[in-house]
Amino acid sequence: MSDAVQEECGIFGIFNDPEAARHTYYGLHALQHRGQESSGIVTSTYDESMQQPVMPAHKDFGLVLDVFDDPSLFETKLLGNAGIGHNRYSTSGASSNRDNIQPFVVHHRNGNLALTHNGNLSNARELRESFRERGTLFQTTSDSELILHLTAQSNRQRHIDQVIDALMQVEGAYSLVMMTDDHLIAVRDPNGFRPLALGRLGDPDQPGGAAYCVASETCAFDMIDAEYVRDIEPGEILVIDREGCANGGDFDSYEIPTKYGVSQCVFEYVYFSRPDSKIFGEMVDKVRRRLGVELATEAPVPEVPEEEKTPIVIPVPDSANTSTLGYAMQCQDMGLRCRFELGLIRNHYVGRTFIAPGQDRREMKVRCKFNTVEGLLRDRTVIVMDDSIVRGTTARYLVSMLRESGAKSVHFRVSAPPVVSPCFYGMDFPDEDELLANQFDSVDAIRDWLGVDSLAYLSVDGLMRAVHGANKSDLGYCNACFTNNYPVPVDKDATKEENEWQV
To answer: Can you give the residue range of the structural domain that contains 84?
Structure first.
């Protein structure tokens, strides 16, 4: 993605597993693409010396491999048969505040409670003001903390009922994994914006039953050899306990009522999720290939004379790889001369804070992240494909690099419609006036600014045909970032004010 929208958070939880912490670690490693700011794991165990249940935690800024680089953590600290973990990219709350690193853990009258959260609460300001009036003190600037306060102040008696009571009061886009001393609780908001899946590890007929896990994406299950069972349904509160594990996954499930229907985030398919994951009940790879096929029918490769070199179709790695394959294959099936090639090579080891003294930092960051295969590009018609364009500065630099490498002509294809609206459901988009599509009055004007010979985006209709064609589920999708059609009403001014308070 050019000038990428920042990834969301990745969440993982597992119950009834003697290797809970280690498997959570592997699950978070598989979900690293969803957040690189910080990582954390909390487990649930019983402290014999204290004669009570405890929830030891380890979390810090950095990648999973760096935060958990001490193997003794899994032998001496992160003990127990249940655990939850979190990779963070901050869509709300200050990224530099250590207190905002999840999972959050609290202790109140009914025991311990830990929480991980992916998404944004749309009624966070209203809830925070209500708590302030009652004198509540906040330890973080994250909206996730509000769920813990709602649970602690519930008048219900059972711990699980307090959690359910709290969840009935929050609104917005969220997937949650929560842990009490006796339960693992998986929650998806009623609109189903963010993905969350249920997996099973081990033999359900073994003594004590199998272990059950939940994750933002099923690639986390593959890492620990767990089996995908199903998605957590939109609006579902699934309570995983020992009795249910022993009975083959017969868990209690509660429903959060919805007023607006289901609107799963289509951008998960376009960009966020790994192609080897199944989200919203379908493989991401399958959907992305369909995106490329639809784009090929709308804007195929340009035809060139037979005496010229065969045009090449290249992706902006890595998120555009799969859709570019679908595009190239469909163009070939249509009788057009082209082939798929890797003309841009990505350096995966560029830090986020790379500083280039004396040079344009934005351009140097692109050059440190990507390089061209000059011998492949020289004197060729090059069709470069990206999954989306947000601000456009990266795309412009890439086009310049392709021309410097000798490309005869450069044609840009985008396997999503123009991004015209910010997201208020948990993705970190630029402000509306910073979006490239809003700075020009036509695609031709954007083409000229990018410096390409032709430019084409996938239409909104093509996007939805691809998604519905690959995923036969009748559940709806949110495409507000492409259409400005928000499925759940949002108070844009309140959201901006809330984010300013949190920074």
So the answer is: 10-263
Rounded to two decimals, what is the model's pTM? 0.89
Regarding whether 290 and 244 lie in a shared domain, the answer is: no
167 and 107 housed in the same domain: yes
* CA dist., res. 174 & res. 164, Å (int): 15
Give yes or no for a contact between 105 and 42, defined as CB atoms under 8 angstroms apart. Answer: yes
- The answer as to whether 279 is a domain residue is no
Residue 493 lies in a domain: no
Q: Which residues are catalytic?
A: 9
Give the pLDDT confidence score for residue 492 in this predicted structure: 66
Q: Helix, strand, or coil here: 324?
A: helix
Are both 234 and 338 inside the same structural domain? no
Q: Distance between CA 20 and CA 16 in Å, rounded?
A: 8
pLDDT (tens digit per residue) in 369-414: 899 999 999 999 999 999 999 889 899 999 999 999 999 999 999 9
d(CA 371, CA 207): 54
Residue 50 amino acid letter: M
CA distance to 9, 22, 29, 176, per residue, from 64 (Å): 13, 12, 6, 20
What's the number of domains the chain is made of?
2
